[in-house]
Amino acid sequence: MNEDSSLEDRIISVLKKIYDPEIPVDIYELGLIYDIQISRKKEVKILMTLTTYNCPVADILPIEVKEKIQSIKEINNVNVVLTFDPPWDRGFMSEEARLELGML
């Protein structure tokens, strides 16, 4: 396992502790994280979305993601980019999330 994959695993572990307040599933399993990029300088870019355009946590969830990822000591900078392209839908959810929500 190389250093970046280990760091990515730790980032994913942190993301799995952040929950959408309206849905009892973490944002990673919910499929809200589209991409995680880690540069050689240990700068992280998270491409994420929300369940809807007018999501009530649109102002706070990306900030929470940034702050919690930034708390990983090796990371020098975190940039969270919010996108709605493609728009989120239930197909992005993991099987675990669908099971948790009774959708399987």
From TrEMBL:
Residues 8-80 form the MIP18 family-like domain. PANTHER family: FE-S PROTEIN MATURATION AUXILIARY FACTOR YITW. It comes from Blattabacterium punctulatus. Signal peptide: none annotated. It comes from the Bacteria. It holds the Pfam family FeS_assembly_P. This is FeS assembly SUF system protein. Gene3D superfamilies: Fe-S cluster assembly (FSCA).
